[in-house]
């Protein structure tokens, strides 16, 4: 199994889950839920960067993920793109996205005006370390839904996206399996201690 397929399998394991997060700062509360869809994988993996590789750009994004899972689209094919170096840094951290989300990451309310150099439109920014390097996960409201989508995900390069963003304190985090109804409280500062 190549690294791209490993990322797709790792992301596939997140599909039945949602993360409900409550965070606070100076009396303000953020309350949001992250959900997952197969189509989300395309952008998270950076496949949109491969503008000269028609295999990864044509067809539905869910079908592209299925082809990666089945081994019909491979890392070797992605490497044929002149732009592969733009997506490659995302892959290893992406294979650990669930661990990233399971940790008590740093939460920021994202204000795109603080970064006029960026075209990223997001509501929230989560930051965590992977192998000693900061990694950013941007969240935005899913179209026609109340949940947040993982919009983009990449390691820090020269730009510090957390700079100038209001930092929030994690108050509660729950992981919900939509298939079984199982709810795992991963962090809770809100419930009274018994």
Give structural notes.
β1 and β2 form a beta hairpin. The chain is α+β, with helices and mostly antiparallel strands. The model has no long low-confidence stretch (mean pLDDT 92). Strands 1, 2, 3, 4, 5, 6, 7 and 8 form an eight-stranded antiparallel beta sheet that branches. Helices cover 26% and strands 31% of the residues. α1 crosses α4 (61-70).
Essential attributes:
194 residues, alpha+beta, globular, 8 strands, 8-stranded antiparallel beta sheet
Topology, element by element:
Elements: H1 3-12, E1 17-25, E2 28-34, H2 40-44, H3 54-57, H4 61-70, H5 75-79, H6 84-94, H7 97-102, E3 106-109, E4 124-130, E5 133-141, E6 148-155, E7 167-177, E8 183-188
Antiparallel strand pairs: 1-2, 1-7, 3-4, 3-7, 4-5, 5-6, 7-8
Query: What kind of oligomer do you see?
Result: single chain
Mean pLDDT level: 92
Counting DSSP H or I runs of 4 or more residues, the number of helices is 7
Unreliably modeled segments: none
Shape: globular
Biggest pleated sheet? 8 strands, antiparallel
Distance between the termini: 47 Å
Radius of gyration: 17 Å
Which class best fits the helix and strand makeup?
A: alpha+beta
Number of strands: 8
Beta content:
25-35%
Assign a percent range to the helix content. 25-40%
Order of helices and strands: HEEHHHHHHEEEEEE
Short description:
By secondary structure, this protein is α+β, with helices and mostly antiparallel strands. It has helices at residues 3-12, 40-44, 54-57, 61-70, 75-79, 84-94, 97-102, and strands at 17-25, 28-34, 106-109, 124-130, 133-141, 148-155, 167-177, 183-188.
